[in-house]
């Protein structure tokens, strides 16, 4: 039986105004195991701040943000680092270490946070790379890869290690956004009891058949539910 504890919960969370987020109203969201939320906003900066808030990288001025039922602000630093090891993320900024190969960039976060065997992790990463359309794990540095291949590599890094929460900061040029490989990765995460938050600029996905159980808009009015699954 699947746990009733939400994967992610924002309970009247208000962001500090100096973070350039033009939203000073409480934000509330409850994401259960098996759910995928599609969150739209006008600006990619707002989406990145929202992702930071969800992953405990910034503290709300008031209210709470809980991951797996635990308030980020109440956890010691070493515990929060371990908890973030259960979160996969695609960053709009890329967040690649430029002097390391892409394969190392992909594996490094989990090598730090997991006890999973290195060879097993590499085999899983290779399978994901091929699922997303790469011939293998790129050894090149990030600056030597095409934008499309970097998009694919970012998805490999985010979904690697069976994370319980995946945060995807969408980019308008993301070539694999609506591919069956992406939908399969979302489904696999949700089927094992995880959850996905896909963060996208407004109007970049309108009309697309995206597998979301909640469709929300982030604006100065807060988080507004546009559509919930039937």
Explained architecture:
A hairpin with a 2-residue loop joins strand 4 (62-67) and strand 5. This protein has helices spanning 44-54, 77-84, 102-113, 118-131, 147-159, 180-191; strands at residues 8-14, 27-31, 36-41, 62-67, 70-71, 87-90, 165-169, 195-201, 214-219, 222-228. The radius of gyration is 17 Å and the shape is globular. The mean pLDDT is 88. The protein is α/β, with parallel strands linked by helices and 230 residues long. It is built from six helices and ten strands. The strands form two sheets. The protein has a six-stranded mixed β-sheet, with helices on both faces. A four-stranded antiparallel β-sheet has the order 2-1-4-5, with no helix packed on it. It has one domain: Rossmann fold, CATH 3.40.50. Helix 3 packs across helix 4 (118-131) and helix 3 (102-113) runs parallel beside helix 5. Helix content is 30%, strand content 24%.
Span of the ends, CA to CA = 22 Å
Topology pattern, helix = H, strand = E: EEEHEEHEHHHEHEEE
CATH level 3 topology: Rossmann fold
Task: Tally the structural domains.
Answer: 1
The CATH superfamily is: P-loop containing nucleotide triphosphate hydrolases
Placed side by side, the strands forming the largest sheet appear as 6-7-8-3-9-10
How many beta-strand elements?
10
What are the salient characteristics of this protein?
single chain; 230 residues; alpha/beta; Rossmann fold; six-stranded mixed sheet; four-stranded antiparallel sheet; 10 strands; 30% helix; globular
